[in-house]
């Protein structure tokens, strides 16, 4: 059984080019025994072409994308990495913030080592987004206070 199985697989790979191309035209997903069926409909339309031969008959096999024309297999992960939405820094009301934005402070903020607080409504220009330090993910300069780190949750985009 095992020997027969291996032999068949080897034959299929070697016979690939012409036969696979003809088959692929009619049947985008030649289904090897252990593969789940490819997703139908809209999903299969958005699969990228093969990076190796540009074949358009890409199908999914678990976490991999497979090209039936050249038997190239690659990970689909790279494609879905295009949307870093989850890492977006948002202000107190959910606006996505970007470098260079102007924001206002939505509540009085006590500043360590200073008698004065940054007052609600203070405008902060040209913010810079940084990796959070204790939850402070905005680097900026506040008039009268100098360089500051703020939490995005205490500002509102203007
Ligand atoms: Zn290919």
Description:
This is Alkylphosphonate uptake protein. Residues 47-75 form the Protein YjdM N-terminal domain. Belongs to the YjdM family. With 158 residues, the chain is α+β, with helices and mostly antiparallel strands. The chain folds into two domains: 2-80, N-terminal domain of TfIIb (Single Sheet); 86-157, Roll (SH3 type barrels), CATH 2.30.30.40. 20% of the residues lie in helices and 25% in strands. It contains four helices and eleven strands; from the N terminus they run αααβββαββββββββ. The chain has helices at residues 2-14, 16-26, 42-45, 77-80; strands at 59-61, 64-66, 73-75, 103-105, 109-110, 117-118, 123-124, 128-133, 136-142, 146-150, 155-157. A hairpin with a 3-residue loop joins β9 and β10. The longest helix has 13 residues, at 2-14. Mean pLDDT is 79; it is low at 5-12. Bound molecules: zinc ion (ZN).
In short:
20% of the residues lie in helices and 25% in strands. The protein has four helices and eleven strands; from the N terminus they run αααβββαββββββββ. Bound molecules: zinc ion.
Kindly report how far apart the N and C termini lie: 70 Å
**Bulk shape:** rod-shaped
For the biggest sheet, the summary is: 3 strands, antiparallel
| Strand percent estimate | 15-25%
Question: Residue share in helices?
Answer: 10-25%
Q: How do the SSEs run, as a string of H and E?
A: HHHEEEHEEEEEEEE
The unique ligands bound to this protein are: zinc ion
CATH topology of the largest domain: N-terminal domain of TfIIb
Strands in their spatial order, largest beta sheet: 1-2-3
Tally of discrete structural domains: 2
Alpha-carbon Rg, integer: 27 Å
State mean pLDDT (0 to 100 scale).
79
Briefly note the structural class of the backbone.
alpha+beta
Extended strand count: 11
- The parts where pLDDT drops under 50 for at least 5 residues are 5-12
Question: CATH first level of the largest domain: which class?
Answer: Mainly Beta
The CATH architecture designation of the largest domain is Single Sheet
Number of helices: 4
Protein name: Alkylphosphonate uptake protein
Domain Protein YjdM N-terminal: 47-75
Pfam families: YjdM (PF03831), Zn_Ribbon_YjdM (PF08274)
Family: Belongs to the YjdM family.
């Amino acid at each position: 059984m095992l020997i027969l199985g291996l032999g068949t697989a080897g034959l299929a790979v070697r016979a690939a080019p012409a036969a696979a191309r003809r088959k692929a035209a009619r049947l985008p997903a030649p289904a090897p025994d252990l593969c789940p069926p490819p997703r139908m409909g809209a999903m299969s339309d958005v699969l990228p072409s093969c990076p190796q031969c540009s074949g358009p008959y890409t199908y999914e096999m678990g976490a991999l994308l497979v090209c039936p024309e050249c038997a190239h297999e690659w990970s689909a992960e790279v494609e879905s990495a295009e949307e870093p939405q989850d890492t977006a820094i948002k202000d107190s009301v959910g606006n996505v913030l970007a470098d260079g934005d102007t924001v206002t402070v939505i509540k009085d903020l006590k500043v360590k080592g200073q008698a004065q607080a940054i007052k609600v409504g203070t405008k902060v220009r040209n913010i810079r987004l940084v990796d959070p330090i204790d939850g402070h993910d905005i680097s900026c300069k506040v008039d009268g206070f100098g360089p500051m780190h703020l939490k995005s949750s205490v500002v509102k985009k203007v």
